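job 3f2a | input accepted
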Amino acid sequence: MKFFFKQHDTKRTLVLGLILLSLLALMSGLSQVVQASPRRVFLVAWNQIERRYIEPQPSTRLVNDAIRGMFEGYHDKIPDETVGTLLVPTDVAPNLKRDLGSVDRAVRLLRERLGKDFNQTKHYHDAITVMVAGLTLDGTRDYYSGYMRPEAAREFQEQLENRYEGVGILIEFKNDELIVVRPIEGSPAYVAGIRAGDRIVEVDGKVLESIPIRSVSDAAASIRGTRGSSVVLGINRPGITEILRFTLTREKVKDDRNVYREILAQTHGIGYIAVRGFTKDVTESFREALAYLNSQDMKGLVLDLRMNPGGLLDKAISFSEMLLPRNALITYTQGREAKDYEEYRVKGQPVYSGPLVVLVDQFSASASEIVAGAIKDNGRGRLVGQTTFGKGSVQEVIELPDRTALKLTVAKYYTPSGRCIHGTGIEPDYAVKLVRPATAETAIEPDLSPRVAAPPREATGESSATPPKEGGLQEPRWRKDTQCAAAVALLEESLQ
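job 3f2a | predicted structure (496 res):
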């Protein structure tokens, strides 16, 4: 799915990394390590974690996780007891030279034992992978940080551009469960009947626990694949005891539609805009949607952020600026150090300043929570629906020298009132459950995840479906959506 992240200054990263490498080389008496590309990449990654990750991590755990990662898959050739002799005691003080020496000894042992099968690049990449997987945030595993090898980094960029190959589902980890945020309309997953809230427990017959999934990125990679290939997903659906299995054929698809707009109640001029992700084009698309609804004499707006898993920080900010008054605080972020503080305020005048109700649910996350929190705390509108997901951390993508990349949690964001919603979410002003109709033909979920490609923090595919014509959300349909009906009722009352 898409991440609430900001790009990192690559040149600055490389310069700082090279400075560290030079110092390490002098300390160890091995100046030639600066030219050892895989080792250099590992050291730059290590340095970035030590300096930028939001919570200080025990250095001994970092080095021991790195060593364990190098030996993954070689237990038959190198016993665990031997690997254990390389690990650093957890109760000793940090010592960079000692820790680096332990990693170097691990590499030498692998070279001796594996012979022609020794692959220095792979071993260092494995070390970074496991080292990042061991990062913790607020005492729990940080699934949002990850290490992306060149192919994964390329796929990540494709996700930002809404083009990739897969089955078309947006996924997220919560309470160590892999949850479907929603299937993208028209995608293989959508057509097969996978629903928002489904838990993925198997991939191609393998239970999730047996697959080395260390991050949301890893989970998405285990499901993605080349166009025309198939994957079998085992689904645990609330209310159904047995595992549901879906055989899906992957597609290469692209769906440019991210914003959907409609007039719901013509009499009172109630407009409706659904936003399914904060992608690169969301600001302009939202502006166009507002212009259309204003041309229809819109007097009140329902903004639907349900099943919106987030996106780009700068887009959430520019989006909020169209709804909030000048100089209003949108959000602020706080990183590891006191100096790592940044706040975001509205710079111009709003595009829409009329009555506003925002729909949220348990899948509204990250950047969508930024927008919802800013609207609520500034008294700009009311929230209707269910408590949001609670993803209040910021990831930064840091490019490494070999075209791999780190995705590190570097800050938490706060709503204007000073609330950090990480792990708790934002409570709506009016709690309203979504009542699902009894028949599949009138199911609300596909009708209201509508006609828009979401920009997930991680996605396993996207839709090739032709965007539907306007008018797909008719009154008989929205009135069956208890949350949307409640929002319309609030607006109608305020307009009387």
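job 3f2a | Residues 7-19, 21-36, 437-476 have pLDDT under 50 and may be disordered.
job 3f2a | closed
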